[in-house]
TrEMBL record:
Organism this protein belongs to: Petromyces alliaceus
Family: Belongs to the iron/ascorbate-dependent oxidoreductase family.
Superkingdom, taxonomy of origin: Eukaryota
Domain spans labelled Non-haem dioxygenase N-terminal: 13-92
Alphabetized Pfam families for the sequence: 2OG-FeII_Oxy, DIOX_N
InterPro entries noted in UniProt: DIOX_N, IPNS-like_FE2OG_OXY, IPNS-like_sf, Iron_ascorbate_oxido_reductase
The protein's name in its UniProt record: Fe2OG dioxygenase domain-containing protein
Domain Isopenicillin N synthase-like Fe(2+) 2OG dioxygenase, first and last residues per copy: 183-270
Length: 281
């Protein structure tokens, strides 16, 4: 399969952050429809003055990620957070096919991020990028709350402990498509932002039919510089009373060939107290 045969980005609308800031009724309606249908859209940071430089920041953080993950495993293992529950992703983690480092938003706010090496050297850059994502996610949540008349923000109050964070991911492609493991899942948080520059993210198009048929999946083209892919996650689907869709998605690749792939993923997650209340309910 060649890239020209891949589904194009017209399957997934682009929402302009500047227009959301201006509270444009048409942009708000477009956002709501995107979250109700496939649950996936592009967010364009470029027209909003405060985030105009995010494309350059993204490229810089890819380079920082490369420097960090190319270190020997024994160096990265020093960043393993043994003092946290298995459900928390802070610090360094490694799996069969990827390595990750997650920076806690709470710790960033408190000035207590536990960073090392290239990450520590670039902490101001990481913090600014992280803050842009956080503010944008809360604006999206606010616009959806207004549209649905449901108190979504009451589970995401400023200053309340949460597992919200920015995750750097090293996820190389495989020699052949046949080697790619099945990773389909939905995200457990509220909103997920995914920055990437190589083809690899697929989403299930529920309206087309069951997940076990290849033709019912679509690659989401890498976002243009200054843009990000956003998708609804499980908490938001639940809080919206299933009006919004948390899509099943997975990591794959469109063709054979092994290469480095770095992904920057921001997860807006509900405050810890809200998660406990959901379990009790």
């Amino acid at each position: 399969m060649t890239r020209t045969e891949l589904p194009q980005s017209d399957l997934f609308p682009t929402i302009d952050l500047e227009r959301l800031v201006a509270n444009s009724s048409s942009e708000n309606a477009k956002l709501l429809e995107a979250c109700k249908s496939n649950g996936v859209f592009y967010l364009d940071f470029r027209n909003y003055a405060a985030t105009r430089d995010i494309g350059r920041q993204t490229e810089a953080i890819y380079a920082v990620s490369d420097r960090y993950f190319e270190q020997p495993i024994e160096v990265k293992m020093k960043d393993l957070r043994k003092d946290q529950p298995a459900s928390s992703d802070r610090g360094f983690k490694f799996y069969d096919f990827e390595e990750t480092f997650e920076i806690s938003h709470d710790e960033m706010q408190q000035g207590s991020s536990r960073l090392s090496g290239p990450l520590a050297e670039n902490e101001p850059l990481l913090n600014e990028f992280h803050s842009h994502c956080h503010k944008a996610s809360h604006l999206i949540l606010s616009r959806l709350e207004e549209a649905l008349n449901i108190p979504l923000r009451s589970s995401h109050r400023p200053g309340q402990p949460s597992e919200t964070g920015l995750k750097l991911v090293a996820e190389p492609s495989f020699p052949t498509i046949a080697d790619v493991p099945e990773t389909k899942h939905t995200d457990s948080g509220t909103l997920t932002f995914v920055f990437y520059d190589k083809w690899g993210l697929q989403t299930h198009l529920a309206e087309k039919g069951p997940e076990d048929r290849t033709e019912n999946w679509a690659f989401i083209p890498p976002p243009a510089p200054g843009c990000v892919v956003v998708h609804v996650a499980n908490t938001l689907q639940r809080l919206s009373k299933n009006q919004l869709r948390s899509p099943v998605h997975r990591t794959s690749q469109p063709e054979d060939g092994q290469e480095k792939r770095y992904v920057l993923t921001y997860f807006l997650r509900p405050e810890d107290a809200a998660k406990t209340q959901a379990v009790v309910a």
